[in-house]
Amino acid sequence: MQVEYQAPLQRLNTFGIAARARCLVRVRSEDDVRALLRQPGWDWQHTFILGGGSNIVLAGDVQRTVLKVEIPGRRLLREDERGWLVEAGAGERWHDFVVWTLQQGWPGLENLALIPGTVGAAPVQNIGAYGVELQDRFHSLDAIDLETGETFTLHHEHCAFGYRDSVFKHDRPGARGMGLRGRALITRVRFWLPRRWRPELSYQDLQRKVAETGIQQPSPWQVLEWVCAIRRAKLPDPAVLGNAGSFFKNPTVTAEQCADIIGRDPRVVHYPMPDGSVKLAAGWLIDACGWRGKTVGRAGVYEKQALVLVNRGGPQDPCSGGEVMTLARLIQTSVYERFGIRLEPEPVCVG
Ligand SMILES: Cc1cc2nc3c(=O)[nH]c(=O)nc-3n(C[C@H](O)[C@H](O)[C@H](O)COP(=O)(O)OP(=O)(O)OC[C@H]3O[C@@H](n4cnc5c(N)ncnc54)[C@H](O)[C@@H]3O)c2cc1C
């Protein structure tokens, strides 16, 4: 375990916001976590669990103890005629883990390639991209209760996965179960990768690749390559232009609400869902309100994709979390005024 005081966080969040942690602890094993819990005055409510910092906005210096999860390890736990059960430590980089599974000949995670961040954070918001969500391949995870020190295992049915949602995003018992926000430090995650593999190509961008290349039955590597190419063309690289990926969730509305919005603008991009609801493209709504390419202070809206807010100040004069949240609120207000839709931010604002 490594402890730093007044630790700079600028390189530990993909927005590149300059802030400091009063105390930053790098945890590399379950024992590190347990040792922390034995410290006099330990209070889990004054901690923040940090992975790769790719889904957070730092509102200022962090007075809570930041636990930077760096638990390593990847291994095959079981193999049978149906598939592979694979485990990774929470601190592993997600994309490296995806590539490693493919190198071993275990396909299934390729549509989730190039998502920044760590394996441990992936279940928190049930990461998803190009027709696959973490929950589709998830088996179970281990976590430590930061209040009691107890280690526990959660299976799929305990995690209350939803669209960019899980039990780890809720802090009270309720519709999404136990409410483990900030309290459960995920240490290891396991994935079930079935042998019977079919490429998941339902997304329009992937369909376009099939049409362009004429490859009807791509290999897992081919899908990974396509996904990486599509992502590189669409999303800014945080190493070049700070950002936290999609800033707002795509809102879900009823069919009646959707009809009302179509009445206001027939071009609205919408996707009917199996349960009868309709998902709206948040990026389109923001774009329609004229935000694409706009800048407020040192925070801006990415010119190629209005769903992504970016740090226009760069590493020398970075935007503050306050500027990002001000811009986010302005966008929320104009989308609400024009379409009656409340956009919900995806990243966690850390105060
Ligand atoms: C360019 C870009 C593209 C992106 N594309 C996508 C995408 O396609 N799909 C998608 O779903 N997301 C996407 N994201 C968002 C982000 O990459 C994911 O949410 C990712 O899982 C966050 O991982 P992280 O390790 O950086 O988590 P952090 O940002 O460090 O933390 C996020 C949350 O998880 C909690 N957390 C982190 N680690 C643990 C742990 N071990 N135990 C318990 N809680 C923990 C934190 O407390 C925080 O609440 C993108 C982000 C960027 C910058």
UniProtKB/TrEMBL annotation:
PROSITE patterns: FAD_PCMH (PS51387)
Catalytic residues identified in the record: R164, S246 (proton donor), E346
Cofactor(s), by name: FAD
Any GO molecular function: UDP-N-acetylmuramate dehydrogenase activity
UniProt cross-references to NCBIfam families, sorted A to Z: murB, PRK00046.1
Catalytic activity, EC: 1.3.1.98
GO biological process: cell division; cell wall organization; peptidoglycan biosynthetic process; regulation of cell shape
Gene Ontology cellular component terms for the protein in this record: cytosol
Family matches, as Gene3D superfamilies: 3.30.465.10, UDP-N-acetylenolpyruvoylglucosamine reductase, C-terminal domain, Uridine Diphospho-n-acetylenolpyruvylglucosamine Reductase, domain 2
Protein purpose: Cell wall formation.
Major subcellular site: cytoplasm
Protein's recorded name: UDP-N-acetylenolpyruvoylglucosamine reductase
Listed pathway(s): Cell wall biogenesis; peptidoglycan biosynthesis
Family, similarity comment: Belongs to the MurB family.
InterPro entries: FAD-bd_PCMH, FAD-bd_PCMH-like_sf, FAD-bd_PCMH_sub1, FAD-bd_PCMH_sub2, MurB, MurB_C, MurB_C_sf, Oxid_FAD_bind_N
Domain of life: Bacteria
Cell compartments where the protein resides: Cytoplasm
Keywords attached to this entry: Cell cycle, Cell division, Cell shape, Cell wall biogenesis/degradation, Cytoplasm, FAD, Flavoprotein, NADP, Oxidoreductase, Peptidoglycan synthesis
Span of the signal peptide: none
Catalytic activity: UDP-N-acetyl-alpha-D-muramate + NADP(+) = UDP-N-acetyl-3-O-(1-carboxyvinyl)-alpha-D-glucosamine + NADPH + H(+)
Organism: Tepidimonas alkaliphilus
Domain FAD-binding PCMH-type positions: 17-196
Enzyme class: oxidoreductase
Keyword Transmembrane helix appears in the UniProt entry: no
